Each structure stands twice: as structure tokens, then as C-alpha cells.
Amino acid sequence: MNMNMKMMKSPIRILMLLLAGVVCSAAQTVSPAAATASVPEVGGTKTIPAPTTPQLQPRYPRYKIASGDSFDVNFELSPEFNQTVTVQPDGFVTLRGVGDINVSGQTVPELSETLKQAYSKILNDPLIVVMLKDFEKPYFVADGQVGHPGRYDLRGDITVTEAIAIAGGFTEAAKHSQVLLFRRVSDEWVEAKIINVKKMLKAGNLHEDAHLHPGDMIVVPKNALSKISRFIPTSNMGAFTQFPL
User: Fold this and answer.
1) What is the pLDDT of residues 188-232, one digit of tens each?
2) Bridge partners (DSSP) listed for residue 156
């Protein structure tokens, strides 16, 4: 009897293991159709692609050309084309000999390659050196419960705690444990991070003190006590602990 029961349980156990493997494999495999969603619309259905995960910026992102920037364009073998140009509000620059070219959003290496391709139409293998002359200086913004909210130049390697000190430090109403760091990672995405400055300073460990990138925003929210109204109806006083005078 016992032998027969063991023989019956063995195939059942094997079957259960095989079914579990099939379920796991199906769960891990996502078909292209599963990455989209269909919604009804007039005359049929419309397929909407699933949102993609934003690509994070590198630790030291390169500066990108913006409107109002100016730069020198120097030709090593054709100095007659040397010039200083300013990026117009629409992102275009007017270059001697080749006309208007859109350079907005390009890094300096990308700009050099764009100019080389443009001048290759009239020069043989031009050697071009681009030097930024006037551009938007790196900055960060501190807002919320800091002594002096505003926009500050980002000079050198600055951390969140250092930036708060530059902005006048915490106010009495600041919530030290939930400092918000906002960082733009693309034209469509902004990364948000909560930093517990109170915990870091109490432990004397600043390894998690984030380093700022150009354009970062720090927001220090109010703590819970600072949100209490100055005047409270006496009918609500029972909710508070009574302290002796």
C-alpha cells in the first residue's frame, strides 16, 4: 500500500514541477504585444506604446549649446574664416561662407563635427577649433525652508549639504529628514530623490551626500509642527497633550 502511494506521488510531484517551470518561463517572457495597450476609439482601436524608462545622465554631463551663447570658430589652415558667432533665439547661427546652421543642444565636440561637415563643402578637410566665449554658467536652485532661497552659481564639486549651507542653512520650520533633490535627466523626465540630511549629520556619515549637477533643484519642505495654525479653536485642544505652565 505504502509502495503504491509513493509511486503515485512521484509522477504527481514531477508534473507539478514541470507546470511550475512553464509558469515561471511565461512570466519572465514578455511578448511585443504585451508591451503595448489597446484602447477603443471611433472606427477601431488605437495602440499606445508602454512608457519607457528614462536614461540617466552621466556623472559629468557635457555642456550643451543654448540660445544666447557665443563661441569662437578658428580655422588652422584658413584663418580668413575665423569668426565669433552668437546663437540666435531659434538655435541657429549664421556662419561665414555656409549660411545658417542649427546648433542648439549640441556639445562642443558635436558642434565641432557639425561645423566640419558644413565647411567640408567649400574647404578640403578643414581643421576647426571651437572655443566657448560666453555661455550660461552652471547653477543650482535652493528653495523652500532655507535661509536665502534662490539661484546660485555651481562652482566646483558641491554636495547637497554644502548647497544648503550656501543658501543660508535650514530655517526653524525645515524638515531635515526629507530634503528633495530634483534633477532633469531628459527633456521629458525629472528624477526626484529624498535625502535624509538629519540622519546623515546625526550619524556623522556623509557618504550618501549627493553631488550636485548643473541645473539641480533642492527643495526643503516644512516640518509637521510648522504647519499648525497659529490660532486653534478651543474645541480642538483636547487632541493635544496638556503641559503644566
Assistant:
1) 888 999 999 999 988 888 888 999 988 899 999 998 766 655 565
2) none
Which residue ranges form the domains of the chain, and what is each CATH number?
A: 70-134 (3.30.1950.10), 139-226 (3.10.560.10)
Q: Which H or E run includes 179?
A: strand 179-184
Strand locations in the chain, DSSP E?
A: 36-41, 44-49, 70-75, 83-86, 92-95, 99-102, 128-134, 139-144, 150-153, 179-184, 190-195, 217-220
190 - beta bridge partners? 184
Residue 200: other Cβ atoms inside 10 A: 19
The rounded distance, in Å, linking the Cα atoms of 22 and 29 is: 11
In the structure, what pLDDT confidence band is assigned to residue 177 with cuts at 50, 70 and 90? very high
Q: Where do we find the cell 495654525?
A: 229
3-state helix, strand, coil split of the chain in percent (to 5) is 30, 30, 40
